[in-house]
Amino acid sequence: METPSQHSSTLAISPLIGNRTHDTIRSTPKEANISQQSSLHNSSYNLTPGNVGNISDVSAADRLRLWRHDALMQHHYKTAEYIGDKVLTLTNDPNDAFWLAQVYYNNGDYYRARQLLSRQRLDTTSVSCRYLAALCLMKMEQWDEALDIVGETNPFRNASHKAQNTDGGIKWEASLCFIRGEIYANQNNLERAKECYTEAILVDVKCYEAFDELVRNDMLKPQEEWELLMQLDFSELGDNDEFIHQLYVTRLNKYINQKNQENAHFILKEEYSMTNNSDVIVSRAETLYVQCKFQKCLELCEEVLKEDELNFATLPIYLASLHELRAKNKLYLISHKLAEHYPKKPISWLAVGIYYLAINKIPEARKYFSKASSLNPNFSEAWIGFAHTFAAEGEHDQAIAAYSTASRFFPGSHLPNLFLGMQYLQMGNLTLTSEYLMSSFSICPKDPLLLNEIGVMNYHKGDLSNSEAYLNQALQVSRDIDSDSKSWISINSNLGHVYRRMGLYSKALMCFEEVLRVSKRDPNVYSAIGLVYLKMGDPGKAIQNLHYSLATGTHDPVAHDLLKRALDENLSSKCQEEFFAKTSREALTFSSATKTPLMNRTKHVSKSNTLNDSVDQIATDLINGADSSDEDDDDDAIMDIESD
Amino acid sequence: MDVEELRQNLRHSVNLLGALNLTRAAKWAGEALVGLREPTEEVETSVKHKQIHNFETLPHRESDCMMLARGQFNSKEFSRCAYSLRKCQSPQAVFMRLHSTYIDGDRKREEESQGILGANDSKVTNANAPHVLKELSSLLESPQYSDDPFLLYLYGALLLKQKSTELATETLIKSIKLYPFNWSSWSELITSITGLDEAQLILHDLEVHFAHDFSALTMVRIGKIVIYQELFQHFEQLFKDLQGLLELFPNFAFIKTQSALVSYHALEYQQAENTFDSVLQQDPYCLDDMDTYSNILYVMDKKSKLSYLAQLANEVDKFRPETCCIIANYYSLKCEHEKAIMYYRRALALNRNCLAAWTLMGHEFVECKNSHAAIESYRRAIDTNPKDFKAWYGLGQAYEVLDMHLYSLYYYQQASIIKPHDRRIWIALGQCFDKLKKVEDSIMAYKRALSLSEYIDLSIVYKLALLYQTLGQEAEVYANMRTIYVEEVNTEHHSDETAKARIWLARHEMKQGNYSEAYSYAVDLTYGTSQEIEDARAITRAARNKMNN
Questions:
Q1: Does B163 touch chain A (CB under 8 A)?
Q2: Residue A553 contacts B, CB cutoff 8 Å
Q3: What is the DSSP string of A391-412?
Q4: Phi, psi for A198 (deg, rounded to 5)
Q5: Which of A158, A189, B408, B532 could lock onto B528 through a cystine, CB 3.0 to 4.6 A?
Q6: A332 closest CA partner among A350, A355, A315
């Protein structure tokens, strides 16, 4: 139990105290009839106007109850326990027993609360007591007993859908469904957990906890999420129905139905002026993240964190975008802050792990990811990070095991399958790669990185036309959503390689040129351009580009060998003829140089096949077995130069 | 009238370029302005040229930010400058923001590279460049920014660094067409041009574009002489153009330097020296291009004058790359190569793009027998300026030392494409082809070398003869040997080749049975190794015997 500071506690209570003379705050329902389940209510201050006008009118027992309630609200648990016990002895009212159990629960005395409830046999007769009893057992991690109490299925299934709530509170049936889901989740039965959560939110739309669990953990596939939202009944919220509906929309995944999201944001902004609400901002940030606009996403997250330093709804997306942007220093700060203030929250250790991953200290990163996942075994981000550490070290089998776990927890996210596909691609198992990538594709068909990966896979399969199609699609998508230049570069250069293998050299050159325009000076790109020129029969330009490649300081054996090839080619009689012609033309008088000089360039495009074959051969010899995916946890696959 | 308009334009450009923190271009424009011919009489002209970037029309908030940013830029707080401009929308503010972002990346790169030729020198790249490029390319698509000459200039300059040369050239031309008075655009454009054909096309295009604009045409003329100078051209029209410009800008050191360089390339060293002297006389504290002057003095072997220049530069400013280059040249002339290298390094640390220093440092490394370091410096030289034939030639030599003839062939070829009139390169090429067993090509190269020589170089002729011999073309061998012989008789100059030629000719005639010819070839052989003289005597005896029989 985290106790809020004294200050905030009084702040919360003070209005009640001020109002006490006007509206009596009833800690317990007056008509304490235990058999009437609906009257037992966990909303703390049940206002029954007109019942009691003045504090002096209240009976002695009720005064004690008020005292108990005040003490509970002000976290004076000893007082509450002492007084609650006395009231119970005085009245022997089951309602008072329930409230005493509440006091125990709040004080962390789960065992005593449970004992009290079962001694009074309340957990069999009252839904609310059953709920509290199950909660106690869950706190004590006695999952099987807890499941016994709540039942394996919803006993009210047939009735509860229709059951109208009389007082507008959250239906006990929904809450029960929710904790049933939690129990199943803890027992690793995620399929059942998902069903229970869904049931909970269907029974009562106010059961946000269940909705949050479903959405936050990506338990549903994107399409299913939207379908679920359609089924929800917001009508009982009265005037708030539209408001809550739109808020829920903003919580859904951002892969599909972009229009609806925008619409929801528009309504929230126009009618409810919710623009600056943290959750709405986070939803916008999530949209940006999916679109790979990490910098803007980070800015939004920081806007939220400015108001609320450790806003837990923001942190996962904040950490993810910091990781994408390699903002080591900020990661360091936030992980320190988290570890200091919330050493028991898994997200704190996730942050530490991400920091170590960012500074490339893999063993430490693994240690903290595993700490995070031991604090919450269902914490899928931690699992993915854990897997990344293995992937970074090239331990494919262990990485696959960890990704698979994440994939089980995260059926609604395309990422684990994408990573699995990447691992298999690196291992050269194209069948499994295809399987995982396509299943990832079925979840999210719009991720440029995924499309890139599929393109690479097809390239390796030798299915160049398909590869081209996917890469073009990736390019299209990344242009639509304006993703950052890094992914765009790798897609473009991959496309260049595909065109190169298809023999469309001028197209390939265009792609590589595009890459050059925005990337840093990447030796691989220059080598690729060199290879293309070599195949086009222009050893001069090939040599030039291979030089650029080697000048960037990497001692790439491929580039060296290609350079040797090109220099050999340069010695061929054709090139020498050209050379002598060129120099003599320029050596002639100045004015004659205006003659069209370009004729030499295009003439020899069609080279003898023997040359092409031998160049290919050398490239293959060199690269056979080399990884094609430059694997990195941000999932770019950059093909090395590689030939048929 | 035209001149006044040019003056107005230059005046405006000094302010504008200064306001945009293009300090080097602003300095250039200022020098041009002051160097312009004095007006004959006071004439009032209004600037006809389209006003670009009028700062007064900016919203107050924006121009305030610009002023703040300028101060930060000038105190070298580049990231802060960019941050201050983050919300500004006007093209000039965007230019300044991106420009300072890029410079900031360069500065960081410099810090991480661990010095010239350090461990990380070639691996570290400007981390900000991709963002800046990406933003520029998307900005230049929108109509608000697409015709801003300065954004175009920045884009072009960055593209050039990325080696995306064609687009870079195109972009820079666009920038110049919109605003011809930004010398930075010109110098980037000049760097991007590698061939004569290309240069002619571009200059023609610009001349047509500015057909009736005297001021802009003047800029094109200046650009033209620089381009032709860098391409080692020296033809009649160029000298005339230079003369015209010198008359228009009698006090503009830049034009004078160019004219000195043209003289230098035309091997008129004295002329070049005089021109530089006059530059120094007129502007004693000018260090710009003085490193080139020191090169000329080096070539002329004027030790004392070079020493004087070094002292002078050292007094003006010790920490200018030019000064360091001059001092390095001085040490090099004194054969203190280690010290020379140290000063070149210092020059490069002060300005990485100091073109000459890379090449010259390469030469020094060659002197120190450090081929790998030499290769690395030559490569950098080419990386910054692919038109530097000395660097190409140096690379060829360095690889020749390493016995990698395939490589050195390519470099010699590049050098000769840039400077086809240089016989040294052709001889080197001939040797390379020979080593690579390309006899026909080798013959072609040697013939080219021969045709460029002012006198008949007997060693080349002898090599040609040997090459023909490997091809088994007796007649050609005979012709070449004969040339050597005739040359020897004419000049009465004896050398190893003449002795060898005589012996070959004598043996040849013996085989043919022309004993008297053989005798006359062999009998006069007096210069040569003892073996050769011995052989000659043997032939003489044999021939005499045969003749007597």
A1: yes
A2: yes
A3: HHTT-HHHHHHHHHHHHHH-TT
A4: -60, -45
A5: B532
A6: A355
Query: Chain B contact for A554, CB < 8 A?
Result: yes
Q: Is any Cβ of chain B less than 8 angstroms from the Cβ of A579?
A: yes
Between CA B186 and CA B419 the distance in angstroms is: 23
**Chain A residues with beta carbon closer than 8 angstroms to that of B126:** 520
pLDDT over 70 (residue A33): no
Comparing B268 with A10, which gets the higher pLDDT? Answer: B268
Q: Do A520 and B125 count as a contact with CB atoms less than 8 A apart?
A: yes
Residue of A nearest to B238 (CA): A590
> Mean pLDDT, to the nearest integer, of B27-45?
80
- The pLDDT score that the predictor gives to residue B236 is 83
State chain B's maximal CA–CA distance in angstroms. Answer: 112
Q: Residue A592 pLDDT more than 50?
A: no
- Identify the pLDDT of residue A54: 56
Tally the domains of chain A. 1
Residue type, A281: I
**B305 vs B311: CA distance, rounded Å:** 10
- Cβ <8 Å between B197 and A587: no
- From the list A486, A552, A590, which residue is nearest B122 (CB)? A552
Q: Is residue A415 part of a domain?
A: yes
Within 13 Å, how many C-alpha atoms sit on residue B64's CB side? 4
Q: What average pLDDT does this structure show over A284-290?
A: 86
Cα–Cα distance for residue pair B461/B498, rounded to 1 Å: 10
Q: Is residue A222 part of a domain?
A: no
Domain for residue A464, yes or no?
yes
CA nearest to B522, candidates B508, B534, B506, B511: B506
Higher pLDDT, A388 or A484: A388
Q: Residue A407 sits in a domain of what CATH number?
A: 1.25.40.10
Model pLDDT, residue B81: 93
Say which residue the tokens 């293309």 belong to. Answer: A532
The answer to whether the Cβ–Cβ distance between B134 and A520 falls below 8 Å is no
**Residue of chain A whose alpha carbon sits nearest to that of B378:** A551
Check if B214 contacts A (Cβ < 8 Å). no
Cα B484 to Cα B502: distance, rounded to the nearest angstrom: 9
| In contact, B382 and B410? CB cutoff 8 Å | no
Burial of A276 (0-12, 13-18, 19+ CB in 10 A): exposed
Instruction: State pTM to two decimals.
Output: 0.75
Q: Hunting for tokens 């919220």 — which residue is that?
A: A237
Spacing of C-alpha B9 from chain mean position: 30
Read off the pLDDT of residues B422-444 as tens digits, 9 standing for 90 and up: 888 888 888 888 888 888 888 88
B 271-310 → A contacts, CB under 8 A: none
Name the residue among A30, A103, A94 with its Cα closest to residue A72: A103
Q: Taking CA atoms, what residue in A is nearest to B406?
A: A567
Of A339 and B352, which is predicted with more confidence? A339
- Tokens for B242? 């230079």
Other C-beta atoms within 10 Å of A379: how many? 23
* ipTM score of complex: 0.75
CA distance B116 to chain A (A): 13
Q: Which residue of B has its CA nearest to A518?
A: B130
Q: Which of B122, B197, B436 has its CB closest to that of A593?
A: B197
Rounded Cα gap, residues B130 and B127, in angstroms: 7
Mean per-residue pLDDT of chain B: 86
**Domain limits for position A505:** 380-623
pLDDT at B107: 87
pLDDT digits (tens, 9 = 90+) for A218-235: 888 888 888 888 888 888
Residue in B with minimal Cα distance to A489: B130
Q: Which of B163, B195, B416 is nearest residue A548 as measured by Cβ atoms?
A: B163
Please report which confidence band the pLDDT of residue A41 belongs to, taking 50, 70 and 90 as the band edges.
very low
- What is the mean pLDDT of the segment spanning B502-526? 80
